[in-house]
Specification:
By secondary structure, the protein is α+β, with helices and mostly antiparallel strands. It is built from 13 helices and 17 strands. The chain is 41% helix and 25% strand.
């Protein structure tokens, strides 16, 4: 691992040089693909440090130019194409230097698109290939287990599910081990933010401790570092009862300002959901019953959607008769509450404390039995 550490660390120095930790920067990308049969099916996504966006721009004469603000040390761009049930995908770190990607071909064996690029670092070269090597034994073990026992797991065999969970946990912990061994690498820091802090197998308190004692100060004091801490503190809300809820200010679908601190004195039920999430939709009748049997002067209900199509979102509100406060996707709020799966519910009492969050053993989305008992005891009619 020593040689790999040196290579990955050198990459970090190259990309972090002369960057201000909180500066707002601009990236510019040019993608060249003269083959219309390829370009019309290309999907371009990027992570700017705050959120992941999918561009809706189209190629014009084989050319697409993309520019936007980014807040991370580096933006990350993914160019992908789906073809005959296969997905070909390439991801790169980019910075303020204009990057160019000229399409050449498809490498079916590696499921990669082949680009000639400038001012970009392939994630594989940045550390992803070394991570795959480091976890290859555990990855193969899981693959072989599901090949032999997949039908048992699908059939809800408790012993098979328990064994599969142990093997999956081994992969996750091995990935975390790699990140900690390469803690000076920007790839490790990025991977920790994107793939580990939201993993429910890893306890948020342990992750927060590792974060504070492992990564260099330059990483921890950055915009990305603040986002990591915000998210992990949000996850802790699910683990510790009676924590003070994070505050937020946003607007609902009618343009009305919604400020959580101004609701102090009443209970607030916050739901994170999406129209495409079947368990989310399944719990809506129970939420309507809660709304119809409680006083809006004592209980406020706020639903925050993960939908990206606003038209479908608005149709869903009408279809499911969601006669309470509705907010179109606000990623900052979801980070503050550490939301990594849907549906997610939080009940905040009149003193601003989180007294209920979706428990991992509460799988009956249609009844919300634990939540109903808490609301009934609070006499919110």
């Amino acid at each position: 691992m020593k040689k790999n550490n040196v290579l990955i660390f050198c990459f970090s120095l190259f990309f972090l040089a002369a960057q201000s930790v909180f500066s707002q920067k601009i990236f510019r990308v040019n993608i060249l693909c003269p083959d219309d049969t390829i370009s019309k099916n290309l999907i371009v996504e990027y992570d700017n440090g705050k959120t992941t966006k999918t561009t809706r721009q189209k190629f014009v004469n084989g050319h697409l130019t993309l520019t936007d603000t980014f807040y991370a040390f580096n933006a990350m761009i993914t160019i992908s194409r789906s073809d005959s049930n296969q997905r070909f995908s390439n991801s790169y770190f980019i910075n303020e230097l204009p990057a160019t990607f000229a399409y050449k071909s498809i490498d079916s064996s590696r499921k990669k698109l082949v680009f000639e690029n400038s001012n970009a670092i392939d994630l594989g070269d940045a550390g992803e290939n070394e991570l795959k090597k480091y976890t290859s034994k555990e990855e193969l073990d899981v693959s072989e287990y599901f090949r032999k026992n997949g039908s048992k797991v699908a059939g809800n065999d408790s012993a098979a599910i328990a064994e599969s969970n142990l093997k999956i946990s081994a992969i996750i912990n091995k990935r975390l081990e790699f990140v900690l061994l390469n803690n000076s690498s920007y790839f490790s820091f990025y991977y920790f933010r994107k793939n580990l802090i939201g993993n429910l197998i890893l306890p948020p308190d342990s992750l927060l401790k590792l974060y504070n004692t492992t990564f260099p100060k330059a990483f921890r004091k950055s915009f990305e570092g603040n986002e990591i801490v915000k998210f992990l503190n949000g996850r802790l809300l699910s683990a510790v009862n009676h924590s003070i809820s994070p505050d937020f200010s946003t607007v609902d679908i009618n343009g009305k300002k919604v400020e959580l601190h101004k609701m102090r004195g009443k209970f607030v039920l916050i739901s994170f959901w999406a129209t495409w999430c079947s368990p989310c939709v399944a719990e809506l009748p129970a939420m309507r019953e809660i709304r119809n049997t409680t006083s809006d002067k004592k209980l406020e209900i706020i639903s925050i959607s993960y939908d990206t199509d606003k038209e479908l979102f608005l149709k869903g509100i009408k279809k499911y008769e969601m006669n309470w406060v509705n907010i179109f996707y606000d990623e900052d709020i979801s980070k503050k509450f550490g939301v990594s799966s849907l549906p997610m519910l939080f009940l905040i009492d009149d003193k601003g404390r989180v007294i209920y969050s979706r428990k991992s053993d509460e799988t009956s989305y249609t009844k919300l039995g634990v939540l109903r008992k808490i609301i009934d005891r609070a006499n919110l009619q």
